[in-house]
Amino acid sequence: MILYIYPGLIWLAVLLSIPAFFVVNTQSKKYHRLIFGIIVMVAVLETYGAYSILNSQNSSIFHNLLFVHAESLLLLYFFYLNFSLKKVRQSILVSGLVLMVWALINSLFFQPINSSFQTYSFIPSAIILIIYCIGYFYSIIKEDKFQDVKIVAVPSFWIVTVVMFFYSCSLMFFASIPLVNPENYELVYKIYNLIRGLSILMYLIMGLAFYAPIFFKTRSIPD
């Protein structure tokens, strides 16, 4: 029962996000479709993950392919859509290419994709995503892009905020695991459950972010 709470809450994020298809404005639809796809992908992944645990199966390959690699690349695409500067967009494309090449190298020589969670791939992905999160907040201040709207009414603001929060915490967790004494793995497990709780919060806020313009009445959001 407890095993299915985690995927169940992510499916809740999916359900909460569905009505947004009918209320988001034209400018936000491309962002909503992307974020909705990410949440659905993770919900399916975690449902299968719970099933595989009950049946003593190894689902590492799917977690690595979808969570470590696919989600990171899709979030990079989200940033690509949000940035207008050509140089930044080019850097995002290069970052995605570098992550894919490194994922292949890591899978072939260091951490087989079907054996365990690929921390060597997740850590650089998290660092890159955090950098673009910081870049997003910097662009808000420098370009004053949302000067005519309340920042809390901008869906991307909420999404980037929770992405930065989750990946910052996850980065510290997975980077510190090799330094932990094996005798303290019970503590690691407790922190891991906390990270999973943060991921639930992230996906829920992602699913609700597109209602922000309704909750916080505002004018049209610039593209």
From TrEMBL:
<feature type="transmembrane region" description="Helical">
    <location>
        <begin position="31"/>
        <end position="54"/>
    </location>
</feature>
<feature type="transmembrane region" description="Helical">
    <location>
        <begin position="60"/>
        <end position="80"/>
    </location>
</feature>
<feature type="transmembrane region" description="Helical">
    <location>
        <begin position="151"/>
        <end position="174"/>
    </location>
</feature>
<feature type="transmembrane region" description="Helical">
    <location>
        <begin position="119"/>
        <end position="139"/>
    </location>
</feature>
<feature type="transmembrane region" description="Helical">
    <location>
        <begin position="92"/>
        <end position="113"/>
    </location>
</feature>
<feature type="transmembrane region" description="Helical">
    <location>
        <begin position="194"/>
        <end position="216"/>
    </location>
</feature>
<keyword id="KW-0472">Membrane</keyword>
<keyword id="KW-1133">Transmembrane helix</keyword>
<feature type="transmembrane region" description="Helical">
    <location>
        <begin position="6"/>
        <end position="24"/>
    </location>
</feature>
<protein>
    <recommendedName>
        <fullName>Histidine kinase N-terminal 7TM region domain-containing protein</fullName>
    </recommendedName>
</protein>
<keyword id="KW-0812">Transmembrane</keyword>
